[in-house]
From TrEMBL:
Protein known as: Tryptophan--tRNA ligase
GO cellular component: cytosol
Matches recorded under InterPro entries: aa-tRNA-synth_I_CS, aa-tRNA-synth_Ic, Rossmann-like_a/b/a_fold, Trp-tRNA-ligase, Trp-tRNA-ligase_bac-type, Trp-tRNA_synthetase
Positions with a binding annotation for ATP: K9, P10, T11, G17, N18, G145, I146, D147, I184, K193, M194, S195, K196, S197
Provenance organism: Faecalicoccus pleomorphus
């Protein structure tokens, strides 16, 4: 099996967009790749976050991953902070990065463009740590959405730069773009991504939302005035978003859904999607509570860190020897 790696920041509650765009893909990938998934808790502190909130988010995230069908016997799940090699290689990659490269990265670029103050050095340099996260494991593939592709590109550039300077050390990773459900949009503003930081609660469905409340959010989702059920993301982005949600959760092709609703109205379609979301959340949350009741999160993370650490520490030792940190070859 070829190796794949992905990470997620525990900086908010997971959304339906996270499930459709990432988690549902991971469940499929775990049977196709040697999959490593880490919780990027070191990235989480690039902006202020309370320790209590970070702990709870992390625990919920792992429990939801397991409830969604990720099997710890097939996939290695671990905390970034539990494997010290991430921080160690992160510093080396920071020293390999150019200021101009980091200034072009989306988060820093967007915040400075808005004139935000109090931006931390960590927010500026975290893409170098993210590159280290990827390169530690010689992962061939990194599944990403469109807005994260530049981070893999930076990892590729740094890997090539290091390899050229010190000899072949890192596998050059490739971004793996999903085809369906790659990005789910706000239910209230379908021009914006459904986000953990959404200001309008009606625009986002959290995976731990009350299922009945989530169904209401679907019923009040923004559509358009055309009144025609078709998949047209450019002219009917709200409707296209709803069709994508229904297609992924029900596993029915969008074309089939559209054909079933010829001559019918948006209200009837929303009713079906709302019920699909209700059933999905009810089932997921039942499994989530079972994971917490069995108290298996800590053991899964401990096992994952041990397995990941073997690979990551070996890579760091190799890097340290090549850059001259160790005085014996």
């Amino acid at each position: 099996m070829e190796r794949m790696l992905s990470g997620i920041k525990p900086t908010g509650r997971l959304t339906l967009g996270n499930y459709i765009g990432a988690i549902s893909q991971f469940v499929k990938y775990q049977d196709e790749y040697e999959l490593y998934i880490f919780i990027a808790n070191q990235h989480a502190i690039t902006v202020p976050i309370e320790a209590k909130e970070l702990r709870q988010n992390t625990k919920d995230l792992v429990a939801l991953y397991l409830a969604s069908g990720l099997d710890p016997e097939k996939v290695t799940i671990f905390l970034q902070s539990d494997v010290s090699a991430h921080a160690k290689l992160g510093w080396v990659m920071t020293c390999m990065s150019y200021m101009g490269e980091l200034q072009r990265m989306t988060q820093y670029k967007d915040k400075t463009a808005k004139g935000e103050t109090g931006i931390t050095a960590g927010l500026f340099t975290y893409p170098s740590l993210m590159a280290a996260d990827i390169l530690l494991y010689d992962a061939k593939y990194v599944p990403v959405g469109i807005d994260q592709k530049q981070h893999v590109e930076l990892a590729r550039n740094l890997a090539e730069r290091f390899n050229n300077r010190y000899s072949d050390t890192f596998v050059i990773p490739e971004p793996l773009m999903t085809t369906v459900g790659q990005k789910i949009y706000s239910l209230q503003d379908p021009t914006k991504k459904m986000s953990k930081s959404e200001t309008n609660p009606k625009g986002t469905i959290d995976l731990l939302d009350d299922p009945a409340a989530a169904r209401k959010k679907i019923m009040s989702a923004v559509t358009d005035s055309l009144g025609i059920i078709q998949y047209d993301p450019e002219n009917q982005p709200g409707l296209a978003n709803l069709l994508t949600i229904q297609s992924v959760l029900s596993k029915e092709p969008i074309e089939s859904i559209v054909n079933r609703y010829q001559g019918k109205g948006y209200g009837e379609l929303k009713k079906e999607i709302g019920q699909t979301v209700f059933d999905f959340l009810t089932n997921l949350q039942t499994k989530y509570k079972d994971v917490l009741d069995r108290k298996i999160v800590d053991q899964v993370l401990q096992n994952g860190a041990q397995k990941a650490g073997i690979i990551a520490n070996k890579k760091v030792q190799k890097v340290y020897r090549k850059v001259g940190f160790t005085i014996t070859k």
